Amino acid sequence: MKVIIVGGVAGGATAAARIRRLNEHAEITVFERSGYISYANCGLPYYIGDVITDPGELTLQTPESFFKRFHINMKIHHEVISIHPERKTVSVKNLENGEIFEEKYDKLILSPGAKPTQPRLPGVGIDKLFTLRTVEDTFRIKEYINKNHPKSAVLAGGGFIGLELAENLMELGMDVTIVQRPKQLMNPFDPDMASMIHNEMRKHGIKLVLGYTVEGFKEKDNGVEVLLKDNPSLQADMVVLAIGVTPDTVLAKEAGLELGIKESIVVNDRMETSVPDIYAAGDAVQVKHYVTGNDALISLAGPANKQGRIIADNICGGDSRYLGSQGSSVIKVFDMTAATTGINETNAKKSGLEVDTAIHAGLNATQLKDLDLAYAPPYSSAKDPVNMAGFMIDNIAKGTLKQWHLEDIDKISRDKSVVLLDVRTVDEFNRGHIDGFKNIPVDELRERISEIEKGKPVYLICQSGLRSYIASRILEGNGYETYNFSGGFRFYDAVVNDRALIERAYACGMDY
Ligand code: FAD
Questions:
Q1: Which of 87, 93, 77, 88 is nearest to 36 (CA)?
Q2: How far is the CA of 38 from the centre of ligand 1 (A)?
Q3: pLDDT grade, residue 498 (50/70/90)?
């Protein structure tokens, strides 16, 4: 099976890695227009504000590391320029040398994301006006700040990106103003809740210009003039436009895929588009709102990651469904945390819903994978730990993963009919391991697979359980039966040391 993926960040990278975990032999190629893959989009404002100082922390994976672990071709600086569903190919442009070539697919996944909305206003496109979407945009803003030392910034737009940037630019010592057409920041919040955000922003010196409309921009020698409708203009050394995002779906449109709100891609609950063998995920797709049941656009990392995973399951013969988005999100506003889920009071009233109620759930463990949980970098991760627990339970329930536990250790360490394998690095192994385990690091497993005896169940361990899970999928894909240690060596070590301390204390007659 040959899988092509357009977009190598949240939805695309997740789908690619999950397909490999489910199918050791699929040929997977990801085309990514920018120079980076699988990066923490949500950390970008924090790099600008020097909270994250190492660019390496933004880009955790490289094409090389991805290939080493997953055998997936990540082709950066490659833009897919058209889709030909009738012959199941895509045309791709190598942005480094201009070469255009055609590539065949059996399954195509689109996860191209959304682009910053660019209003047709005079002055959009001038040098000191920035938008923030990619790592390259981030470096551009950071370079401008480092070189020009701007003292003031206007942020057009008071949503998540505007607020995160405001705080980060303020922390750099800049004078920051947010202009927003509605009379509140953060539209998903009820106005009374937004008031608390406003107070917190003002308390930290951010100027709020609420209920004002930006009409255009004029470049000045010493900065930018921000033109406001019916009001005097604002002056700043730089401007960031963050008034929302628009699905980046030109490819899908030209290929004749059915489109919905703001030309987003229409998908069913298996994330299949209207054209056979083409799937789509993330900010580019139209979803069902979990509360209202209406069509909606929800641009958040959690849904994109989940949808990528669902596509991978379905491509690999499963039947996973996306239940809809609840719009759960969270943001740090200086010393305050603001979070929202579902719909706000205004929208509930518009939909004719009673608002003085709560969202209740009666869940079983596998349903944890479907929870729509909030994420921003200071809190949690895009693959939320609760969802991750649900994913793991789902894998166990479906038989994709079998486990072994601490209480099995005495039995298996005496059993000559099993293979014991520790897949951590050599250094980690040397710092401590369980007697009887052989060490082959996960990234060397494919090359050294002949060292593992066939026909015997393989009992795996790593530090936390993640690498041994990947190892189990590699081995299962090559005909082995595997069991993964639940909790990892870190858990084993902590429990065994704790028990030893307790035993020693008893032996010495200490009173714990
Ligand atoms: P993306 O992750 O944007 O990936 C799309 C990729 O496709 C891009 O890299 C693009 O270059 C590539 N691409 C597009 N077209 C082509 C083509 N034709 N050929 C090749 N490559 C192509 N969400 C949260 O939940 N919490 C947050 O705190 C948060 N903070 C954010 C902060 C910022 C600054 C930004 C920009 C977004 C933030 N988000 C946050 C939103 C979150 O990052 C997105 O919802 C998520 O990344 C969407 O995933 P995706 O796979 O649809 O698109």
A1: 77
A2: 10
A3: confident
Q: What tokens does 453 get?
A: 């005896």
- The answer to whether residue 363 scores a pLDDT higher than 70 is no
CA of 304 to the centre of ligand 1 (A): 9
Identify the DSSP state of 210.
E
| Overall average pLDDT of the 55-65 stretch | 88
- Please give the helix or strand (H or E) that residue 65 lies within, else none: helix 63-70
**Among the atoms of ligand 1, which is closest to the Cα of residue 37?**
9
Nearest CA-CA partner of 33 in 106, 92, 102: 92
Which residue's alpha carbon is nearest to atom 41 within ligand 1? Answer: 300
Q: State if residue 58 touches ligand 1 by the CB under 6 angstroms criterion.
A: no
pTM for the full predicted model:
0.87
**329 vs 190: which has the higher pLDDT:** 329
pLDDT digits (tens, 9 = 90+) for 392-402: 889 988 899 99
| Whole-Å CA distances, 98 to 47, 92, 94, 186, 266 | 31, 10, 5, 42, 32
**CB-based burial of residue 82 (10 Å sphere; 0-12 exposed, 13-18 middle, 19+ buried)?**
middle
Comparing C-alpha atoms, which of 415, 416, 418 is closest to residue 455?
418
Does the pLDDT at position 68 exceed 80? yes
Task: Mention every residue, 6+ apart, whose C-beta is less than 8 A from residue 466.
Answer: 488
Ligand 1 mutation target, pool 6, 18, 42, most atoms within 8 A of CB: 42
Measured in angstroms, how far is the CA atom of residue 254 from the centroid of ligand 1?
Answer: 21
Q: What's the gap in Å between 418 CA and the centre of ligand 1? A: 44
Please choose from 4, 9, 36 the residue to mutate so as to test ligand 1's pocket, defined by most ligand atoms within 8 A of CB.
9
**Residue 30 φ then ψ, to 5°:** -115, 130
On the question of pLDDT at 357 being above 90, the answer is no
Angle at 159 between CA 154 and CA 164, to 5 degrees: 70
Q: How far apart are CA 167 and CA 160, in angstroms?
A: 11
Question: What does the pLDDT read at residue 512?
Answer: 38
Q: 44: Cβ below 6 Å to ligand 1?
A: yes
Place of tokens 């035993």: 503
The least confident of 10-14, 48-52, 148-152, 379-383 is 379-383
Residue nearest to atom 15 of ligand 1 (CA): 112
Tell me, using a 6 A CB cutoff, whether residue 48 lines ligand 1.
Answer: no
CA distance 22 to 9: 20
How much is the average pLDDT of 230-252? 96
